[in-house]
Amino acid sequence: MELELRHLRVLCAVADAGSVGRAATRLGYSQPAVSTQLRRIERHLGEPLFERGTSGVRPTPYGAEVVAQARDVLARADAIGHRPAAARPRRTLRVASTNSPVLSGTMSRARTRLPALSFTVTSVYASSRIVELLEEGGADVAIAADYPGRELRHSAAVRHRGIVTEPTFVALPDRHRLRQCAQIQLADLAEDEWFLTPDDGAGWPGVFYDACAAAGFTPVAVHEFLGDPAQVQSMIADGLGVSVVQPTLRPIPHVTIKPLAGSPLWCRYVLAWRPDAVTADVVDALFQSATAAYRDLVAQAPHLRAWASSTWNVAGA
Length: 317
Description:
Strand order of the largest sheet: 4-3-5-12-6
Distance between the termini: 60 Å
CATH architecture of the largest domain: 3-Layer(aba) Sandwich
Number of domains: 2
Strand content: 15-25%
Helix content: 25-40%
CATH class of the largest domain: Alpha Beta
Shape: elongated
Structural class: alpha/beta
Radius of gyration: 28 Å
Low-confidence stretches: 312-317
Number of strands: 12
């Protein structure tokens, strides 16, 4: 026999599927037909190409070489007659984002899902400023934050969709008097000093002070801090204060993260965009990228998983 492209496709299908039966299904053949074809190919080449086992098949060392060569031949054959398209400049999507842990994972996934686009990312702390940028045409899409009862406001030129609504946790030094508590009563932190990020134009830190008032106290000392979260964590580790934090935050040594009892504080991350600048399929790809990024963050946050297992549906936005 002479090897033909159809024989090479059989080899690749079997290697990919790890099973003659599954390969037959993918190819649209019967299992006996694929088994017969595989035996003929092996007789032609003079050596076994696959090791058979109870769980399926896998290439022998020689078979792995043959499959690699087959893939190369098939790729070259598929390229015959296809002229490369003229290079086109990729469209750039301008992204503005507040301090959100989902940004990195969202962008890495978006680049894979949307290869025809390139991205420029601008860090913008205040969500109110993010809305202004979208309204003014200075950004095409954004990740912003708002709070229950204080939803993001904008004109009809902008739309938004909730990515996730999450509870706010608290970061304590690991020698804090409440370190052994499974959940922290906000009122029990009345005498602590706080590190807070500044006004974001969307409701923060007003929602924090409202929660403190509802718990019956006013913070004794507040240090406004906008910068590297690692710096705040370092000061917490040194026992200089406490801070409300995103529940997916990874603590550094000597910092512990705990949920607040009764979940008095919540934050929602939203995907906002200009519909005249971003198509629906791009919005959907960005949204799916953001939700997948958040699920990865949850998987790396045992303190959040423990709390969520009994009280929260992670998929809810």
